[in-house]
Amino acid sequence: MRAAKTQFATSSDRIGNDAAVPALQLPAALQELLDTPRTAAQQEFIDTLPIAIALVCMVDRKPTILARNSAFLQIASRHGLPRQADPARDLCAGIALPLMPVIANFLDGDEIERSFDMQEGDGISGRHFAVRLSRLASGESPVPRCIVSLIDRTQQVEGERSLRTQMLRDSLTGLPNRAAFAEQIEQAMVNFETEGRQFAVLLIDLTRFSRVNEGVGSLAGDELIITVARRLISALRAGDVLARLVGDEFAVLLSVADDPSEAMRAARRMQACLATPIRLGDLEIKIDCAVGAAMMTSTVDAAEDLIRNAQFAMKRAKHSGHAELYQACDSTAARQRFSLETELRRAIERDQLHLAFQPLVDLKSGAVLGFEALARWDHPEKGAISPVEFIPVAEESGLIVPLGRWALRAATRTLAEWDRKAGSPLPVHMAVNVSAVQFHRDDVVSAVEAALAESGLAGNRLKIELTESCIVSDPDGIAQVLRAIHDLDVMIAMDDFGTGYSSLAYLQQLPINVLKIDRSFVAPMLQDKDSVAIVRAILGLASALGMATTAEGVESPELVETLISLGCDVAQGYHFARPLPSDEAYAYFRSRNA
Predict the structure, then answer these.
(1) CATH, domain range 2-158
(2) CATH 3.30.70.270 domain span(s) along the chain
(3) Burial profile 474-502: b = 16 or more Cβ within 10 angstroms, e = fewer
(4) Which of 22-26, 55-59, 469-473, 513-517 has the highest mean pLDDT?
(5) What is the CATH number of domain 337-592?
(6) At 292, which helix (H) or strand (E)?
(7) Which CATH architecture has domain 169-326?
(8) What's the pTM?
(9) Which residues form the EAL domain (predicted)?
(10) What share of the chain is helix, strand, coil (3-state, %, to 5)?
């Protein structure tokens, strides 16, 4: 038996080969094994091993510790055992106690190795171990034996737990972040499936936060977010979960009845708690929010699906001004928009769009002064797709940039072709709409320069039309771009005037040549005196600023007469012509200006 212990001290793999335990005459055999002394050198060797190990054998179908090192004793002593405990009797009642059934199962089987994690105790005082059982070859001994090794992973586990806690918390507000919120939803989905507990998700978006952040600075913006979080917490019920998903977007998980009205009441409660202005230093800031709600249903497969449903509802809430509940048609419409985006991208790449041209007619002479170029898309399977449908998709996806550049090139190229047909430059210009999104994402000046250079047209043959929304978003930046365009001798028109929010001060400073009166004011003029008053005011403003005027949506001779009497310069609409293909537009010009 002494030879066996010597082998253990030098090589654990050889212990079973050389060890000889007498045929089981127990407990005498066990007592002899336990009473056999180990040399100091042998014990010193196993004590130098960096991990806790013990040699365990089966006695009377019970695991019994034959030997252990000091590291193993240190672990055991932390559980109330004396360091000089008898290994066979006392140590089995210590840290090894939870392991004994596992060790017994291992020794009764034929596995060579088994590794697993073990937790001893709960809460702060709990310990975590990585355990490995390695069977020793039986050799001449009929007693099954194994080496048990323990690695204390408590610090690692606690570190991972702390890191996970940090990763699942928003650093500014301390609220759960998107990942933690998704986990909460997944648990609620389990409860929904097993117990039928209904719940809903609310998404809350601070609609003016970006402007507030720009105006008061990021530190004050952080303080604002913290204040908003506190107010939202005050509006929660017991059991509701509030999270900050990203930036100025919060989310709430709440248990509700099957009736969605409870979710909508909670949404209105969230809006109400933010109705009072928030004080930041000397400022009082009113925060508006859009709230979208989505109920859990059997068709929802993942947490992100439910969050996305609430986002659909929130998008509608931004337009409606009140809380909205997700509807199945929302996701259908979103899928259709994505499908349309894909097809539009291909249509642009394959040059499958074309322009139609609506004449701009001088009201005094009746001559055609120019044409407005309008994008048209004839889908090979779906037929004609309205610009009202595909232009918003282009703006949302960023496709408006290549689409806008294409429209500039195609319009100027068409006008150059007309000049070649006529044999000389025609007394007509081409108007092209430029989206506010393109103004912000593209170098519009270089796009205009490239279109003019490619077509060979002079700058005064081109007119750029923009809406008031372009100016509102970035008045100083847009003013700089418009001046650069004006320096190219290109005319600039403000489209849909009167429907936006442009400042008259900026209107006076910008190099605008034409004000286009929106059709919503022109069309009802014959029945609505207020519309006449608005059109007269716009015409007077334009005259005072030295700008020409164009009326949109003219569809009757009576409107023409009314506009002439008010002093409007140019008109366009179905009374003169619908948007025409290139050849028909050229023919219309030749016939009307003959």
Answers:
(1) 3.30.450.20
(2) 169-326
(3) ebeebeebbebbbeeebbbbbbbbbebeb
(4) 513-517
(5) 3.20.20.450
(6) strand 289-295
(7) 2-Layer Sandwich (3.30)
(8) 0.58
(9) 337-593
(10) 50, 20, 30
